[in-house]
Amino acid sequence: MTATPDALDRRLINALQGGFPIVPRPFAAVADALGLDEDEVIGRIAHLVEVGILSRFGPMLDAERLGGAVCLCALAVPAERFEAVAAILADLPAVAHNYERRHALNMWFVLATETPAGIEAAARAVEAATGLTVARFPKEREYFIGMRVEA
Amino acid sequence: MPDDTDRRLLAAVQAGLPLVREPYRAVAERLGLDAADVMARLERLLASGAVRRIGAVPNHYRLGLIHNGMTVWDVADAEVDRLGAAVGALDFVTHCYRRPRALPLWPYNLFAMVHGRTADEIDDKRAAIARLIGDACRASDMLPSTRILKKTGLRIGA
Q1: Which one of A59, A90, A137 has the shortest CB-CB distance to B99?
Q2: pLDDT band for position B155 (50/70/90)?
Q3: What is the CATH number of the domain that holds A95?
Q4: DSSP A48-111
Q5: Range of A44's domain?
Q6: Residue A151 covered by a domain
Q7: Which of B16, B26, B109, B4 is nearest to B56 (CA)?
Q8: Is A71 within a domain?
Q9: Which residues of B touch A151 (CB under 8 A)?
Q10: Which of B55, B58, B105, B149 pairs with B15 at a CA distance of 20 to 30 A?
Q11: Same domain, A43 and A76
Q12: pLDDT given for residue A148 in this prediction
């Protein structure tokens, strides 16, 4: 196997983005459903994780239902300060993701904290460290999180 | 809310399940629990939504999905929940949320994320959402990501 997923890898990835059974031999159950061998399924998943095609294999947690909080935020960063501001955010542990996007609001990041009150403190910390105003876009309602992608 | 044992369990598996024939037993042994207890706890955590799902978490970039667009829409407040549910149900939309506007810079209240292998692919997906929303759309934009500046997973403490 190479670092490029083959057809069977893609079939596994498409079939396994959720619904992994909670039974004593879950890989055997998956293998049966796909007409494969239990150890081959385990070996392929391990390989896909090892080469980074899968970030991981296991539970995806909902931080908010575990008492934590997340908030999408954005900054309008002057072009000449962009790299410096990105470096500041890279060092702040509350910043979980940060993306450059084409818009006047050109830096979009997710704050993740252990408590809801932590979000406001983290946003103020970003403002203090950058001198920029953080636009806060807390989720008001979640319609659906598919998160599945076609491999 | 999850109890302390649930939190220990989640802390132990959030980076991944052991890739062995009996993964739940392996986790149970590591934590000094019973395999049946681990499975029952995971069933409860799934049912409560604390665990969204169990399975493969793909790296979009490594699958060739190097383009992503945050599509954003301004729709009437009275319509946003109906339209959000419809947009969120599209199989290619990975996230869909209602969020507050930030006027005057930001008139949009509905966010839907799309991914693709090419720039055309995310343009097509944006167009499909636009067709679904139709005349209810007062303004829209798509913000493609031009660079990942930071990406660390969300982690809970034990």
Answers
A1: A137
A2: low
A3: 3.30.70.3460
A4: HHHTTSEEEEEEEE-TGGGT-EEEEEEE---GGGHHHHHHHHHT-TTEEEEEEESSSS-EEEEE
A5: 7-50
A6: no
A7: B16
A8: yes
A9: 58, 63
A10: B149
A11: no
A12: 67
Q: B136 or B156: whose pLDDT is higher?
A: B136
Q: Find the residue in A nearest to B115 (Cα).
A: A149
pLDDT < 70 stretches in chain A: 1-2, 145-149, 151
- Which residues of A are less than 8 Å from B87 in CB distance? 143
Which pLDDT score is estimated for B158? 41
What ipTM describes this predicted complex?
A: 0.81
Q: How far apart are CA B141 and CA A70, in angstroms?
A: 23
Q: How far is A34 from chain B (nearest CA, A)?
A: 15
| A residues 3..62 contacting B (CB < 8 A) | 3, 5, 12-13, 16-20, 22-28, 38-39, 42, 45-46, 48-49, 51-62
Instruction: Give the residue-averaged pLDDT of B75-88.
Output: 96
Nearest CA among A30, A48, A50 for reference residue A39:
A30
Do strands A141-144 and B95-98 pair parallel, antiparallel, or not at all (unpaired)?
antiparallel
If pLDDT is split at 50, 70 and 90, which confidence band does B154 have? low
Distance of CA A79 to the CA centre of its chain: 27
Residue of A nearest to B86 (CA): A143
Average pLDDT over residues B67-72: 95
Contacts of A28 in chain B (CB under 8 A): 21
Domain ranges of chain B: 4-48, 61-144
Residues within 8 A of B (CB atoms), A 92-121 only? 95-105, 107-109, 112, 114
Question: Is B55–A57 a contact, with Cβ atoms under 8 angstroms apart?
Answer: yes
The answer to whether domain B61-144 has CATH 3.30.70.920 is yes
Do residues A37 and A84 both lie within one domain? Answer: no
Supply the pLDDT for residue A147: 60
Comparing CA positions, the residue from A36, A62, A48 lying closest to residue A2 is A48
